[in-house]
Amino acid sequence: MKNRIKSLFAQKPKGILSVYFTAGFPNLNDTESVILELEKNGVDLLEIGMPFSDPLADGPTIQASSTVALKNGMTISKLFEQLQDIRQKTQIPLVLMGYLNPVMQYGVERFCQKAAEVGVDGIILPDLPLHQYVEEFKELFEKYNLSKVFLITPQTPEARIREIDSHSNGFIYMVSSASTTGKTVGLAEQSQVYFQRVAGMQLQHPGVIGFGIHDKGTFEAACKHASGAIIGSAFVKALQREGSLSENIKSFIESIKN
Amino acid sequence: MSYHVNEKGFYGKFGGAYVPEMLYPNVEELRQNYLRIIQEPDFQQELQALLKDYVGRPSPLYFAPRLSQKYNTKVYLKREDLNHTGAHKINNTIGQVLLAKRLGKKRIIAETGAGQHGVATATVCALMGLECIVYMGEIDIERQAPNVARMKMLGAQVVAAISGSKTLKDATNEAIRDWINNPEDTYYIIGSVVGPHPYPDMVARFQAVISEEIRAQLREKEGTELPTFVVACVGGGSNAAGAFYHYLDEPEVQLVAVEAAGKGVHSGESAATSILGKDGIIHGSRTLLMQTEDGQITEPYSISAGLDYPGVGPLHAHLFESGRAHFENATDEEALQAVLELTRLEGIIPALESAHALAVLERLKAKPDDIVVINLSGRGDKDLSTYLKHFHFDEK
Ligand SMILES: Cc1ncc(COP(=O)(O)O)c(C=O)c1O
After folding, report:
1. Which residue range or ranges hold the Tryptophan synthase beta chain-like PALP domain (chain B) (predicted)?
2. Which of B169, B281, B298 minimises the CB distance to A104?
């Protein structure tokens, strides 16, 4: 079975633009439109956030979008319903990102099965630690051909980065600095040193940089050191501007690419 | 059956360290060092000296004559309310701040519900000359004003948590986010037996002094170290963990954990986690927690800010599922009645949290020769405005 994430990185080893959005935000049924608009505007890879009441790794923007999405009635079941026919409309790689508790309540195997069925390619669960994944869930993810994407940070020791690399498939999510999502201070010099250190490790999997990437400058800076970068909070903010969803998406992505 | 944490950080299926990678180095540093540091002779020396001369330990085990008479049994109160800062919380903050210093940390963060843990943290930071930031839910800031004032007086910065239900759960989220953003110089002093491994075990060890003393004190007073019942209220579960700790492997001692039922267990406004909760992940730990079918964490309710938490420590989840501890609960109203009863029978004004433990005395059906030890986790000064209002003592 082909995995769209692997194909993407094989075809496009540099400059990958990945965008995160919270499912069910701004409106419950925007999921499909957001996906299709992002693809139309040339985004390469999408992370669909499954909203959680207590998103520990997220800053105020994604917290707020999650609260709205939950109020709108977003659930994992609802999201799978919305994605039911998505593969008839687009082949853009899709990664689901969320916290472990809602997935546990849905049932991890049922979740993997359903994700595979609708055509999801990968999963990010920041609070599922590596060893727990390897012990309990790795077989399941492999059975359903889902890429498991792990985070690394500037504080992750080299040996652990190698271990994470060996259990990953797809790509490695390089958190740019010690922070929750949504910081816009730019990429510190320390981050550059860390990016270069990781680049020098010649890992098996491509790295994509996320957290704090919010404009053309930070996107391009990140792309110098990795296969691409992920924009999250800045995009979620852009969706709150006045104007139609498609206009907001178009102008935001243009501001990054052009 | 073991009731102690295993080498992977679990109590049965509960516990573990479900933290994002950003926190892994911090939690791992703590995991690798906590037992070694706690066992060092100079650590123990410093800890014991502070517990004795600064906190005022051992706290008395007081035989409560009029309460005993009323319930026709032998009731002892473990007087954690007499500790410096007015609750058991300081047993833990002294231990953790000494650990933080040995790990070379300069900045201390904490979450707080009732403000007792925040005050205890601010106190030890003043003592050690460390910067202190306390996260507290906006609602709790209002209902526990005296403790907010104390923290400020002690030099701590109190930061309002304005997300979610604006109570303890959200204060904990904010503290964890702070730690993610400040991974190198900051130490997070968690206030209960919750959070990722090794916190539940570490906090339980620092609170275990409670049951260590109860054993010695009962031997002296009753000629036995083993009471019939040990009763404690449970928010996150630290005072209960401390009171139970040295009795976990004494099956003849009945352990009674009392949760806050709020306006009634099934009223929709409750914090009785063992009954209302399901297996899941909260604040980095697998445990029982109150949540929706979809796994969204729900807002608990209790009149007592210290019990207003949607989860319970993994040790307690294990004690509940294994049946080792018996879980009871008390409503707001029952707790308030217990406050007045203790005040009028023994001249002791308890904290609202502790009053939940007192409230189940009748239900224990203890016999005249039974020994009931109730952990009086804190004093009621911080709750006076609630008491005045409720009992109408504020009317002219
Ligand atoms: C006096 C008192 N008792 C009990 C608690 C509940 O915490 P735990 O269950 O960790 O003992 C608190 C928490 O603030 C408290 O202040």
Report:
1. 56-378
2. B281
Domain ranges, residue B143: 14-51+89-192
Q: Give yes or no for residue A188 having a pLDDT over 80.
A: no
The string over B10-36, giving b where at least 16 C-beta atoms fall within 10 Å of a residue's C-beta and e elsewhere, is bbbebbbbbbbbbbbbbbbebbeebee
Which of B18, B182, B292 is the mutation pick for testing A, counting most A CBs within 10 A? B18
- Ligand 1 centre to CA of A121 (Å) is 45
Query: Is the Cβ–Cβ distance between B126 and B154 less than 8 Å?
Result: yes
Whether residue B188 is found in the same domain as residue B209: no
Distance CA A159, CA A89 (A): 41
Q: Are B342 and B197 in contact (CB under 8 A)?
A: no
- pLDDT < 50 positions in chain B: none
- In this prediction, residue A124 carries a pLDDT of 98
pLDDT of residue A1: 57
Do B237 and B216 belong together in one domain?
yes
Residues B105 and B21 in one domain: yes
Query: Of the listed B89, B101, B166, B169, which one is catalytic?
Result: B89
Q: Chain B closest CA to A71's CA: distance in Å?
A: 11
Q: Which residues line ligand 1 (CB under 6 A)?
A: B 87, 113-114, 116-117, 192, 233-240, 306-307, 351, 353-354, 377-378
Cβ neighbours, 10 Å, residue B2: 11
Beta-ladder partners of A18: A45, A230
Predicted confidence at residue A2, as pLDDT, reads: 73
User: Strand, helix or coil at A219?
Assistant: helix
* Ligand 1, atom 7, residue with closest C-alpha: B235
The number of distinct structural domains making up chain B is 2
Chain-chain contact of A153 with B184 (C-beta, under 8 angstroms):
no
Per-residue pLDDT tens digits for A190-231? 788 999 999 999 999 999 999 999 999 999 999 999 999 999
Instruction: Kindly report the pTM of this predicted structure.
Output: 0.97
What is the distance in A from the centroid of ligand 1 to the CA of B238? 7
Q: Estimate the crossing angle of helix B199-207 against helix B89-102, to 10 degrees.
A: 120
Looking at the fold, whether B219 and B294 belong to one and the same domain comes out as: yes
Q: Could you say which DSSP state residue B350 is in?
A: B
H runs (alpha helix) in chain A: 4-11, 31-40, 60-72, 76-83, 100-106, 108-118, 130-132, 138-143, 158-167, 189-200, 216-225, 233-238, 245-257
In angstroms, the CA B62 to CA B342 distance is: 13
pLDDT at residue B22 in the model: 94
Q: What's the CATH number for A15-252?
A: 3.20.20.70
CATH of the domain at B143: 3.40.50.1100
Q: What confidence score (pLDDT) does residue A71 get?
A: 97
Q: How far apart are the first and last CA of chain B?
A: 58
Judge whether B6 lies within some domain. no
Q: Which residues contact A247 (CB under 8 A, 6 or more apart)?
A: none
Instruction: Please state whether B363 falls in left (phi above 0), alpha (psi between -120 and 50) or beta.
Output: alpha
Nearest to A129 among B18, B183, B297 (CB): B18
Q: Which of B84, B85, B88, B112 to mutate to test the pocket of ligand 1 (most atoms within 8 A of CB)?
A: B88
B175 vs chain A: nearest CA distance in angstroms? 10
Final residue in a domain of this structure, among B162, B192, B222:
B192
Respond yes or no on whether ipTM tops 0.85.
yes
